[in-house]
Amino acid sequence: MQLAQSLTHTRYKLTGETTEQDVLAAAEAILKCRLERQGSIGTPMDASDFLRMRLGALLHEEFHVLWLDNRHRILDCQKLFTGTVDGASVHPREVVRAALAINASAAILAHNHPSGMAEPSAADRMLTHELREALRLIGVRVLDHIVVGKECVSMADRGLI
């Protein structure tokens, strides 16, 4: 599959035999390009669209971090942990190690709920608190934790950060 973009219009043409996974990969690439062109994260919605494409269709949990510099420009989006249908083990030590390796100043945490229900659980809230405290010790601010299901829930919008 090739993704061809017209320079004069925002039109895309998928060529060759195209699977559902190809379409989702192309949509993720488009959203990633938009984020990179935008250069920074201004609102939870900016990150939610990208993360929904990246995590929304998975049948198992994954934990990702969108790393940002001190002006909230995107450094990288890393998948740090992979789990099962109902959970993923997240280790604060490894999250801190990843933050130091990329020299991040801020982070947006994200994980999916394969059930489709994006409501943050008590375990999600506790994990967010633990990661926020661990990252605070090395000068990295946690701006949000987005839970992806059929919709995205921003824990910052809910006052949980």
UniProtKB/TrEMBL annotation:
GO MF annotations, alphabetized: metal ion binding; metallopeptidase activity
PANTHER family in the record: DNA REPAIR PROTEIN RADC, UPF0758 PROTEIN YEES-RELATED
Superkingdom assignment: Bacteria
Keywords attached to this entry: Hydrolase, Metal-binding, Metalloprotease, Protease, Zinc
Residue span(s) of domain MPN: 40-161
GO biological process, any: proteolysis
Protein name: DNA repair protein RadC
Organism, as annotated: Rhodanobacter spathiphylli B39
The keyword Cell membrane is annotated on this UniProt entry: no
InterPro entries, alphabetized: MPN, RadC_JAB, UPF0758, UPF0758_CS
Coiled-coil ranges per UniProt: none
Keyword Metal-binding: yes
